[in-house]
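Technical annex B. To support the medicinal chemistry partners, we prepared a structural model of the target in complex with magnesium ion, based solely on the information shown next.
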Amino acid sequence: MSGNASRLSAINAINNGSKKETEMPDSLSSIWASDVFNLATMEEALSKNAFKAMKKTVQTGSPLDPATADVVAAAMKDWAMSKGAKFFSHIFYPMTNATAEKHDGFIVTNADGNAITEFTGSLLIKGEPDGSSFPNGSLRMTNAARGYTAWDPTSPAYIMNTANGATLMIPSVFMSWTGEALDKKIPLLRSNAAMDKAAKKVLTLMGETEIATLNSSCGAEQEYFLVDENFANSRPDLLLAGRTLFGAAPAKGQEFDDHYFGAIPQRVQVFMQDFEDKLFKLGIPAKTHHNEVAPGQFEIAPYFEAANVAADHQQLLMTVMKNTAKEHGFLALLHEKPFAGVNGSGKHVNWSVGNSTQGNLLDPGSTPEENLEFLLFCGAVIRGVHLFGPLLRAVIASASNDHRLGANEAPPAILSVYLGDQLEKVFKDIQEGNLQPTECGGVMDLGLSQILTFTRDPGDRNRTSPFAFTGNRFEFRAVGSSQSVSGPLVAMNTMLADSLNWIATKLEDALSSGADKTSAVISVLKDLMDEHGNVIFGGDGYSEEWHKMAVEERGLKNIPTTADALPALQEESVIALFESTGVLTPVELASRYEVYSEQYILSIEVEAKLVIDMATTSIYPAAAAYLAELTSTIATASGVGVTLDNTVAQKVASAADAMMADVDKLSAALTKHDFPTVDEHMQFCAGEIRSLMDSIRESADLLETLVADKDWPFPKYSEMLFIK
Ligand code: ADP
Ligand code: MG
């Protein structure tokens, strides 16, 4: 076969390749959480007292005494070894979107040279990976590079099965020698505690006497693409950057809209079944899966769980997805925008807060009291998004999510809140005094019944809002598909804690000046709406008018890139927010700013180098070869007295020339390093570097439409998106 070997043989391999057979799925009850050391497992394995202590720790986060830790460690080891595990590992969540782990054997040798197994409470509780290779944002001097992991008993341990055997995985926090957070879990746990404390203040003022520990919940909807590995292996950009840096638009794209909820291709179906079985074994409640808008794009949405556990499970889900995809001959792409011009991938983070005594506080209730509490918590979210919109934008900022946010499909880069018509009216009525406190007395009346008849309407959707109320929770839609959900959850819990503290102070004042509960709540909410109601928006978030109105009339910020977004982490109000709630010290926050900006610069620079490499070593040669063919054909024709039109040859020559001229400019731009501040370096990446990459791509994509198909080196969009 002539032409480009790797691309064409990829297509052949897929067409002739053997597909993994469908296996009969195991029954859910036989596999559910079978690889998890959860409370049910512990109840069987532990003494009554040890179990009671452990259960209290899991449910309230209270510390565990060392003696019990020893007992739990022994039981955990026996259970893990019965499952074939020879190793254990503290898994932790550094300031990247990935996880990290260090494996240790259960086996030690004794003085006689015999192997015995050992796993004590102190080994369970504390690990000591050499932390120096994880990002720390100047938090650890290299001479004190030790980082510690500590067991998080509130997230269950589990067995990870790989080709190399089974390992007991112990979810852990990761901190510096001096106790600073170096990970994404510590702030999440702290933010939950801050929210719990503030919520209890408000609920106590509302007259609640029994208040259980409050927890935030998270249900994350994960979007992803699958590409056959034969294609992926011949696209260095997919392998190294997770997205295509080149590629002309396919003739058939998603404009046909025939993919969304369409039939899932059989091969993908087999993958999904296998993937979900693996998740079930790990106790991850995978619930829905379907095709997404774009061809080749899919979604999996596990049922919601306590935020800390959901965050760990989300990381695990991404790992299991990638591994399982590989087994089925796919590359799973979690990048926010793997294919230009095709819908990107997000990770909607559904979030609510509640406890076992008051229930979900973002769920409108059936009694006036419940509704007043609901309105207070909802109001707290409104205030939070208004005050800390730029922070919410910063925690979802990444080089990859920039391709999605602000583009014409994903939520816009302006943070507003969507409440739905009914709830928006309730808040507007409160603000405008149409819901008079006097009308809200003991008997049901117009005002309160308006709230009372408030029903969830899941059909009432606004898909253009980045932050939407969806009946019993908020949905943060602007989160990127490759991101950890921890950052967004920390920001949401912390802004909620801050707002609930503000509400508690106001409410206390109103109550102590003699107002009844209903009037007090209404007056606090009226003040809140006067100051923060501007952030509520129910219209089309993609429209030009909104972009103008949001900025000019509402005073909201439009923050298009990561370079513009990250500096919010250094704003006084944000530093104060994290410090006052005890979630992050100013030093910890500064270290995060440093790590995230470095990551942004690094990912753009890596992509830029790849662009240079692919353009120079693959695309230019393909164009040159084709040009040679064309010119020789023209010469041959002229030899027999026919003058061939040379427009195509000219187009190829000039596109190739323009591309290489930009490659030179980009190479030169990458040598610039003398930036006075990291902010300026980020801006340079967002501006100069990105735009040179774009113009190189423009020439290359034009070449793709000109050069003979057989000569083109890289799998094309139509092939990667449609061949399964
Ligand atoms: P959609 O695609 O319509 O947004 P899905 O059913 O795909 O909805 O996903 C909704 C997600 O929200 C699921 O993960 C679900 O478990 C989660 N969820 C439902 N109720 C809550 C809640 N109270 N708190 C947090 N997450 C929730
Ligand atoms: Mg959703």
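Notes passed to the chemistry partners:
The longest strand covers residues 215-228.
Residues 191-247+254-598 form a domain with the Creatine Kinase; Chain A, domain 2 fold (CATH 3.30.590.10).
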